[in-house]
What does this fold into?
Amino acid sequence: MLFEPIDINGLQISNRFVRSATHEWLAEEDGKPTAAIGDMYDELAKHEIGLIISGYSYVNPAGKSSNRQQGIYDDRFIGPYRQITERVHKYGSKIALQVVHGGRQAMVTPKYPQTMAPSAVKDLSSGKTPQAMTEEQILGTIEDFAQAMRRAQAAGFDAVQLHVAHGFLLSSFISPYTNRRTDDWGGSVENRTRIIQEIIRRARELVGEDFPIMAKMNATDGLDDKGLDAPECVEIAVALEKAGVCAIEVSGGIFEAGEVMSRPGINAPEKEAYFRDYARMIKQGVGIPVMLVGGMRSRAVMEEMLEGGYADMVSLSRPLIREPELVEKFREGVQEAECTSCNGCFDESGVRCNSGR
Ligand SMILES: Cc1cc2nc3c(=O)[nH]c(=O)nc-3n(C[C@H](O)[C@H](O)[C@H](O)COP(=O)(O)O)c2cc1C
It folds into this structure.
């Protein structure tokens, strides 16, 4: 099944492999994407990846959360992004832009000294307490996301992916741990997903009915005794589908939960695909394609995920940093990725494999 095509809301993808969004630390300081990012995607597309999801791209400068992160908050970025999408399309791969606001995990800078989030819940990883967003800030952020999607479409992206994972702003809205609001934007699942419903409603006015809007969502915050987790994550996924999301990538973890998102030490098949049970639960609840991410290293496990009904696509980040040609190698008979899950690739001088192996 790994090499069978799939259709996402009319978007034909040649196989089941997704390059999961991976921040490259290669944009200019103002967020403008560079040719070096294009070089990376070119390499992935040349080696047969079905769908590339870009590094997370911020929709407003106040929502930037890392140095040299790419941005999509201004029309002046449309041209440089178009150069990137044209390179990818030469090979027949598809490319989506991941759009994000950092929320309580955004950078604090002299210009943006105060982070914002649905509620003023202190981030235990940074010690920063965000400001609870006003209604006006929420409405402004909805517009920021919608305008970002308009730019993505104008730049030739085949789809966008809303970043609703890893503790960033939209993820903090869906989580009962970080969203304690008692107004229309908090409380029930309907209310906690309202910001996403409104983003999609407004985006549809700008990008039309058919442009694929996907989401990467937390199924678990990764906090032992609190936060988002099963079974509520299924209700969230169902609400996202109802809002118009056409594919869901299942992930987990927020900053203060530690190494939940990119778990280290994946050295045995039973440690692979660590969000598999969440993905299966979500897949049983929704009718749209489900992508699974997190710790897949062997071809056999990836096949099992598709054939066993856990997911429709497999999404990889760290293995493709080490081996951008991995999909082609799998097709030629290689069984295992070389990635050792050491997390040395989180390299602020530019994403790369730093494993000594
Ligand atoms: C260097 C690095 C940068 C990442 N940047 C992003 C990102 O921009 N957006 C995102 O949703 N996930 C990001 N992730 C998480 C990955 O997409 C993925 O969910 C996680 O690493 C688990 O998958 P893996 O075991 O295949 O690496 C990043 C991971 C790494 C290693």
Q: What stands out?
A: Residues 20-23, 55-56, 98, 163, 165-166, 216, 251, 261-262, 293-295, 316-319, 345-346, 351 surround flavin mononucleotide (CB under 6 Å). Residues 59 and 144 are 6 Å apart (CA to CA). The two ends are 31 Å apart (CA to CA).
